[in-house]
Design brief:
It comes from Komagataeibacter diospyri. It holds the Pfam family Guanylate_cyc. This protein is of the alpha+beta class. The protein is 42% helix and 28% strand. Strand 1 and strand 2 form a beta hairpin. The two termini are 34 Å apart.
């Protein structure tokens, strides 16, 4: 349970409530009330000004929209009305003067209405005339076509000045041109009344044009179509010249979204390569207009406000009838263009109210902090009392643990209490092994999952900065272990997999200096209970000392109870550094020995030391090589004698050691072999280091049943074979690193109370299936 969750029953709830009400509740409520009133008045004033400004903006845009609608109607009216007047004149006139009526009326209209580009007239036989502006101002160009569809079909061109005087006349081939195939003719005949064509590009002038066409019947019973072509350049210039607010724009679009005239018309036309069907709004270049048109297509005509890139815009869409169709007039202006003066006043008032609110908040905060500080100090004192009580209870539980100083007990209560008191994510106790280069986790407790684990092993090679701090007895505390120079490597190897961030380290100091370290991960209460952590560190130091002396005493007792191996002469041809214990003085078996040595041995401990060829090739001097190997063999032989092994034999690059080769299982054999393995590893490491060579050996140990017997003629050789021999060989070959001792699960089960191990995991062994293997790290 967290210390914050503990309630002191001596404190009356009514006193707590009254203190809270006087110190915090009433002052905060008063300040909040004042702030609420000021903020409400300011917000209401701002909204009132903003609403009035928006209304003003809307009214101004509506007036602009009405003005533009009238101008557009005035722009289109001459063509619409002129086509009707011309139709009546031509329909009731004599065919002989038809061309004169067309020329006179059209030239008059073209001189007085600048937006008119040209006039067309065509009949159902394909005869065609067009009147358009000439090369110079005031001039007119008349083009007529007769005999459509025959080889005689030609265009006759006449250029006249403002007084009607003929200036030039010429002819050009008509080719396959037929006015009856154009939309302005066919659509007008089909409709039987005046029509407007969609905008299209005139190739000669490169201008976007619309045509008003009206059909009629002549006195000769032919169907005629009279058409007036109007350039949209004049309408486009008019819309671009309008000033809508400071930065507003107007644009005309068809119902489908094609641009007719207005803002950005020239760029749009260039991008569409003059094709009116492709002249649409670019959402990247004109995002405001695009969004406004999308709103129109969803909600219809009317005024509305949109927001684009954090800025608010007022938009109006209106309907402009053009014949049977209609165009959409779109006006867009920033909201603050028309009402900036009003908005500025409202914003100033709002800023003033905000400043007043901030000042009131500041004074309220100071008052609140003053009250909170006094309550905080009071709560801190109460909390420290509660923590001290919990520490006392925890120490009492630890002291009452019966097996606290029993070296064979893991004393899991230590890490559990450390985690509970400091509220740590994980608490662990680490021990510095006898070699001074290895740190091993004795026990780690995960408070969230309520599980214990251990056996993790780290070396100075990987964690130099962390080891230097631990070996010097330094206290470490960091909130970001992944960036601290002393704990970065420790975080990467040990903490990152669990998601921990902060780390607190307390050294475990023995008689000769640091012997271990306590680590607390993500422990918010570590500083408050650090003296409790130091007490547990003292208990851990005593346990380490007891474990060391117990292991030494057990080793001595084991050696004293087991008969010492006797050095006997052996036959050099068998290659034994220590002859098998059952051989006679001369190395030859007698009848009795042979019968005793052959057969089944239920529990024999076998160790295999696998040496690399690097020992043989590392030096160029053969004599030096032989001397190094001879020194190693002598050292191994002495250790085998000292530990009472049954035999030791060198076979090429392997050394095979045997202990407990008897019909009755020898319980102390595996203990002697483990001691021998640690001693041999240290001696070989020292000799290789002296020779300036890296560790080039791996050690494997197993215990199990084997068969043994004498093989061959005189001199006979004693040999063992079985699963234990093969397993020891695989343990040596599969050791994780050079210079390490890998043992089987049988060895671990027999020695786990006396030695320190690190679990490697589950592995598949051919013929045996899945099994666990362990690395022997040192004595407890």
């Amino acid at each position: 349970m967290s210390t914050d969750e503990i309630v002191d029953p001596t404190i009356a709830p009514s006193d707590q409530f009254r203190r809270f009400l006087y110190h915090i509740g009433i002052p905060v409520a008063g300040v909040v009330t004042v702030i609420a009133v000021i903020a409400g008045v300011g917000w209401h004033s701002y909204q009132t000004v903003r609403t009035g400004a928006l209304t003003l903006t809307h009214d101004l845009l509506v007036s602009q929209q009405e003005y533009i609608a009238k101008e557009v109607s005035s722009f289109l009216m001459p063509a619409s009305a002129g086509a009707i007047v011309a139709r009546d004149m031509l329909e009731h006139g004599a065919p002989a003067v038809e061309q004169k009526i067309f020329n006179g009326y059209s030239s008059t209209m073209m001189r007085n209405v600048p937006q008119i580009q040209s006039f067309y007239i065509a009949d159902s036989d394909g005869n065609f005339s067009t009147l358009e502006h000439g090369e110079q101002p005031g001039q007119t160009a008349l083009t007529t076509l007769h005999d459509v569809g025959t080889p005689k079909a030609i265009f006759t061109h006449e250029l006249r000045d403002g007084d009607g005087k003929l200036l030039k006349q010429w002819q050009t081939p008509a080719g396959t041109y037929d006015p009856r195939g154009h939309a302005w003719f066919t659509d007008a005949v089909k409709a039987g009344q005046e029509i407007w064509t969609p905008p299209y590009l005139v190739e000669v002038t490169r201008q976007i044009t619309i045509t008003a066409a009206v059909p009629y019947k002549g006195s000769n019973d032919k169907t005629y179509v009279y058409a007036i072509n109007m350039s949209l350049n004049h309408l486009n210039n008019f819309l671009n010249s309008l000033k809508i607010g400071e930065s507003g724009n107007a644009i005309l679009l068809q119902q489908g979204g094609n641009v007719v005239a207005g803002h950005g018309m020239q760029e749009t036309q260039t991008k569409a390569q003059g094709d009116p069907a492709k002249m649409t709004l670019d959402p990247v270049k004109y995002p405001v207009m695009t969004k406004a048109f999308d709103e129109y297509r969803v909600h219809g005509y009317g005024a509305r406000t949109i927001k684009v890139n954090g800025r608010r815009y007022v938009t109006i869409t209106a309907n402009l009838p053009v014949g049977k169709d209609s165009w959409v007039l779109l006006l867009v202006a920033p909201e603050d263009d028309f009402s900036r003066f009003a908005m500025a006043g409202g914003q100033q008032n709002l800023i003033f109210f905000v400043l007043v609110v901030i000042m009131a908040l500041g004074f309220g905060l100071l008052l609140f902090l003053q009250a909170r500080r006094s309550d905080g100090l009071r709560n801190l004192i109460a909390r420290m009392r509660r923590v001290a009580g919990h520490e006392s209870d925890a120490l009492q539980e630890v002291a009452q643990y019966e097996e606290l100083f029993n070296p064979e007990d893991n004393a899991l209560i230590l890490t559990k209490k450390l985690a509970e008191q400091s509220e740590a994510r994980r608490a662990a106790i680490w021990r510095i092994l006898h070699d001074g280069h290895t740190l091993m986790c004795i026990d780690s407790y995960d408070r969230l999952q309520d599980v214990h684990s251990g056996g993790f092993e780290m070396s100075t090679t990987d964690l130099k900065s962390f080891f230097d701090a631990v070996f010097h007895g330094d206290r470490l505390a960091t909130t970001a272990a992944d960036t601290d120079e002393h704990t970065t490597a420790f975080y990467r190897v040990y903490m990152r997999a669990f998601g921990s961030k902060s780390l607190v380290c307390c050294p475990i100091v023995g008689n000769g200096g640091p012997v271990g370290v306590i680590t607390l991960e993500d422990a918010p209460q570590a500083e408050m209970v650090y003296h409790f952590v130091q007490m547990v560190a003292g208990v851990a130091a005593v346990r380490f000392s007891a474990q060391h002396y117990t292991a030494v005493a057990a080793a001595r007792e084991e050696l004293e109870t087991e008969p010492a191996a006797t050095e006997e002469l052996h036959d050099p041809s068998q290659g034994f550094l220590l002859a098998p214990g059952a051989l006679s003085i001369n190395g030859q078996p007698n009848a009795t020995d042979l019968s005793q040595m052959e057969g089944f041995y239920p529990a024999v401990t076998i160790m295999v030391i696998s040496l690399s060829d690097m020992i043989m090739t590392a030096q160029n001097d053969p004599a030096a090589n032989i001397k190094l190997i001879d020194d190693m063999a002598a050292a191994l032989q002495d250790i085998a004698h000292q530990c009472g092994l049954y035999s030791i034999r060198m076979l090429g690059h392997r050394v095979v050691c045997i202990a407990g080769c008897s019909r009755t299982p020898d319980k102390g054999a595996v203990f002697r072999m483990a001691n021998a393995a640690l001693m041999m590893r240290e001696n070989v490491l020292a000799m290789l280091s002296k020779a300036d060579l890296d560790p080039v050996f791996r050690i494997g140990i197993d215990v199990g049943p084997v068969f043994g017997g004498m093989l061959g003629k005189n001199p006979q050789a004693f040999n063992l074979w079985g699963d234990a021999m093969g397993m020891a060989e695989m343990m040596a070959q599969g050791a994780p690193d050079v210079g390490t001792i890998q043992v089987s699960e049988n060895v671990y089960q027999r020695l786990r109370q006396y030695f320190l191990f690190r679990e490697r995991g589950r592995f598949f062994i051919p013929g045996m299936g899945l099994t666990r293997t362990y690395v022997l790290a040192g004595r407890r």
